[in-house]
Amino acid sequence: MRRFFLLLRSENTEEENKYYKDAICRYGGEVITVKDTDSKDVFLTALEKVEGILLPGGCDVGRWDYFLINYAVCNNLKLLGICQGMQSMALWKSNDSLISIGNDFHHQKEGYVHSVTLQDSRLQQIVGSYYLRVNSHHYQTVKKSYFFTVVGRSSDGLIEAVENSMQTFQIGVQWHPERMLDYDDDSKKLISSFILL
User: What is the Cα–Cα distance from 159 to 27, expressed in whole angstroms?
Assistant: First the structure.
């Protein structure tokens, strides 16, 4: 069975974590969870057993985010960054910080909130479209992405997707596909590709 590393952020609830766990298990993956309060030795032991990392949403760049991104890139592991995870991917290799969006347009409860336009990219190939409808749960954004290429933006210009096309699967998305699996085909394609490709 394919194993995937899931970072459990201290600020996330059990319900939020369950969405991530269920998304991995839905397509036959096994979840190995590590808390952000665990030691580096615990992280390294878990990472030796997995083929991919799911970097979840959260409140801010976590103490382990850049370490996990670096590990994925250096060891050619799959990487899926969701919401805060994508923001951390964008900020990796920089001294930049998150910035406030300044409105509530990108912070809605459930369902489709806005569209995302994709460029030619691995993500675009996975979903088979240049246009997505997504949910949205964030107050902050990033000005640019440094190592990872920006491949998707919202209609108001915010960065919504980044990727490393040099690796097998290293994609970050600003929305929450794990919450859309029951009704959105593009989310199913993204999560299943992360697990099965």
Answer: 28
**What tokens were used for 174?**
């600003």
Query: What CA–CA distance (Å, rounded) separates 125 from 22?
Result: 24
Contact status, residue 106 vs residue 136, Cβ threshold 8 Å: yes
pLDDT per residue as tens digits for the range 126-184: 999 999 999 998 889 999 999 999 999 998 999 999 999 888 899 999 999 999 999 99
Three-state DSSP string of the chain: CCEEEEEECCCCCHHHHHHHHHHHHHCCCEEEEEECCCCHHHHHHHHCCCCEEEECCCCCCCCCHHHHHHHHHHHCCEEEEECHHHHHHHHCCCCCCCEECCCCCCECCCCCCEEEEECCCHHHHHHCCCEEEECCECCEECCCCCCCEEEEEECCCCEEEEECCCCCCEEEECCCHHHCCCCCHHHHHHHHHHHHC
The pLDDT value given to residue 33: 98
For 5-51, what is each residue's pLDDT tens digit?
999 999 999 999 999 999 999 999 999 999 999 999 999 999 999 99
Q: Name the pLDDT band for 101 (thresholds 50, 70, 90).
A: confident
Chain mean position to CA 184: 17
C-alpha Rg value of the chain to the nearest Å: 15
Terminal Cα distance for the chain, rounded: 13
